[in-house]
Amino acid sequence: MRFLARFTTPLIQMIDSDHFPGGAESVRARPEKFEFARAIPFLVLHLGCLGAIWTGWSWTAVAVAVFLYVARMFAVTAFYHRYFCHRAYKTSRAGQFLFALAGLTAMQRGPLWWAAVHRHHHAHSDDEHDVHSPGVKGFLWSHVGWLTSSRNFPTDYRLVKDLAKFPELVFLNRFDVIGPLLLLAGLYGLGSALGTWVPSSGTSGAQMVVWGFFLSTTVLFHATCAVNSLAHTMGNKRFDNGDDSRNSLLLAIFTLGEGWHNNHHHYQASARQGFYWWEIDISYYLIRLMGFCRLVWDIKAVPPSVYRKAS
Ligand SMILES: [Zn+2]
Ligand SMILES: [Zn+2]
What we know:
Blueprint: H1 2-15, H2 24-28, H3 36-48, H4 52-55, H5 59-85, H6 93-104, H7 111-123, H8 134-137, H9 139-143, H10 161-164, H11 167-174, H12 178-197, H13 205-228, H14 249-254, H15 261-266, H16 282-292, H17 304-309
Helix pairs in contact: 3-13, 5-6, 5-7, 5-13, 6-11, 12-13
Bound molecules: zinc ion (2 copies).
One zinc ion binds near residues 121, 125 and 245.
């Protein structure tokens, strides 16, 4: 039975991510190690990209894949990271629900899990307790390995009490599979409709799923993971934070501003991570645009005292 549970429990957790028959604390106490059952969703995601061999490609499918990469990277950086984790600006209750729903489509689990893991990272940056420090645990572990260890799977609700006050957010966090399923259904429907009604689009339901979901999500996954791995190994240090966080223009471009990671580790409360006009931070520009449209407000700036410390 125990052997069987090693595979059935992760399967049930794909639907209900708060399913812990023996309690979440016992899972959190497990040793830190690679577990194949937890790696299966990531293997499926990568293998799905090979579907392009059979479906082929079209400009329509490529355009949708690129759009979904940018839109979902924005959801991860501006909503999951800067809003839910760091509360760097404010929005309405309906707004934060839509932020959470958009973030779910990135297939990076729910906003409370994401924020709890990331708050823990800031509290223990590059020390022995940091779950994804490349300096302490190796590059590959910091990039993807830590995600396969079941001890990192439960949401630590103690670290996100401010977010757990909202039952609708807890619901989305628990049933995070809703996001990828909605995206898959939408892409299949869009591809099928275009293939039938606009034959010149050259696409189909299956092709749209391969490009819009599998390829786009895989690239998005690695670009996000790079903030944990590369942004703690590659680039410059402006501030001496006592950790390995770095600033990198290249990473900032691919991650819509998250590459200014040394800045961010130094001052986390700001909505802005590129501290100067030449530090490109697309997420910040879009947050300002949302502010202009009154969708968000109280956008937190970098205080003068931080600029005075900058070298
Ligand atoms: Zn970091
Ligand atoms: Zn952060």
